[in-house]
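Deliverable D2.4 — example input (C-alpha cells):
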C-alpha cells in the first residue's frame, strides 16, 4: 500500500501488483471504493496494476470534496504521476469508466489505451435510467421477501452501518444474472465494508446527469486518437444500447460483449474478461490495435 497526496493535501490509498506496463484501475460508484482484487489477479501477468480509492471513499482520507469530475480527474493524474509517471493504460468500471473516459479526453497524451467496462455512454441519463430502474426492481423482486426488505431499509430515514451494508448487498445482488450465486457475489463486494459516501455519490450523479449529454463531449470523442476497448456484460441491467453513441463516436474502438455476464463481467466470465483485456493491452503496446466494431 502506498499513499498518494494530491496537490490540495488529500491522502489517497493506492496499491500495486503484477508486472509489465502500468494499468491504472478506476472503481465504480460514485462514493464506493476499489473492489478490484479479483480483477487485478486476473491481469497481473500482463500489467503492473495500480488500484486506488477515490477521494473521501474507502481507505482514502475522508474529506469534504469537492465532488466534481474535474477534481477526480486531477486526483487520477496525481496517482498516475506517482506510479508512472509516463503514459499509462486506464481501465474504468461503471462510474469509473466515465471517469477514465473524462481523464482520457482531458489528457490523451498521457493515455496509451483505455478499457471502458460497463459504463453508460455519453448520451442523456434518461436514455438508460428508467429501463435500469425497472430491471433493478425486477431482479430484486424475483424474491419478494428480499424486495420488501430492500424497500424497508431504503425508506428508513436513518440506518445503522449493519443496515447500510445489508441494503447494499440486497441492491448489488441485482447486478448478477446467476441468481443462485448473486447473494454470495454481493457479500464479497461488501467485504471489507468501508461505508458509502452518499454526498459524493449524489453530487457526482447530479453533475453527470446535467453535463454528460453535452455535444462537446461527443465531438471530443470523435477526435480521440487513443485505442479504446469497450467491455459489456450482455445481462447488465443497464441497457447496453446506452453505450452505442460512445462506440459510434470513437475512431479507434473495439467492443466485446461477454454473453453470460452482468455488470461485473470479470466476476462471472473471468476467462473471457482476461482474454479480452490481455489481448487488447498486448495490441496497444505493439501499436497493432485496429478499429473493430463487432461484438464478440
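Example output (designed residues):
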Amino acid at each position: 500500500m502506498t499513499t498518494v497526496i494530491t496537490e490540495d493535501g488529500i491522502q489517497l490509498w493506492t496499491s500495486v501488483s503484477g508486472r509489465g506496463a502500468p494499468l491504472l484501475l478506476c472503481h465504480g460508484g460514485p462514493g464506493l471504493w476499489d473492489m478490484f482484487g479479483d480483477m487485478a489477479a486476473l491481469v497481473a501477468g500482463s500489467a503492473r496494476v495500480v488500484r486506488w480509492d477515490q477521494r473521501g471513499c474507502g481507505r482514502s482520507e475522508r474529506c469534504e470534496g469537492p465532488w466534481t469530475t474535474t477534481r477526480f480527474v486531477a486526483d487520477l493524474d496525481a496517482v498516475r504521476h506517482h506510479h508512472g509517471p509516463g503514459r499509462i493504460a486506464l481501465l474504468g468500471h461503471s462510474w469509473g469508466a466515465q471517469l477514465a473516459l473524462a481523464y482520457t479526453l482531458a489528457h490523451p497524451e498521457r493515455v496509451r489505451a483505455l478499457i471502458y467496462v460497463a459504463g453508460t455512454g455519453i448520451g442523456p441519463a434518461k436514455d438508460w435510467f428508467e429501463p435500469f430502474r425497472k430491471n433493478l426492481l425486477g431482479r430484486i423482486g424475483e424474491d419478494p421477501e428480499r424486495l420488501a426488505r430492500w424497500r424497508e431499509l431504503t425508506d428508513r430515514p436513518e440506518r445503522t452501518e449493519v443496515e447500510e451494508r445489508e441494503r447494499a448487498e440486497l441492491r448489488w445482488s441485482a447486478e448478477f444474472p446467476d441468481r443462485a450465486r448473486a447473494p454470495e457475489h454481493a457479500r464479497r463486494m461488501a467485504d471489507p465494508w468501508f461505508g458509502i459516501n452518499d454526498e459524493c455519490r449524489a453530487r457526482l450523479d447530479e453533475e453527470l446527469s446535467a453535463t454528460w449529454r453535452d455535444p462537446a463531449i461527443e465531438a471530443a470523442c470523435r477526435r480521440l486518437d487513443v485505442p479504446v476497448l469497450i467491455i459489456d456484460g450482455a445481462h447488465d441491467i443497464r441497457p447496453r444500447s446506452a453505450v452505442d453513441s460512445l462506440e459510434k463516436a470513437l475512431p479507434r474502438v473495439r467492443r466485446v460483449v461477454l454473453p453470460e455476464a452482468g455488470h461485473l463481467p470479470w466476476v462471472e466470465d473471468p476467462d473471457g474478461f482476461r482474454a479480452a483485456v490481455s489481448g487488447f493491452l498486448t495490441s496497444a503496446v505493439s501499436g497493432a490495435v485496429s478499429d473493430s466494431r463487432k461484438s464478440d
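DSSP finds twelve helices and eight strands in the chain.
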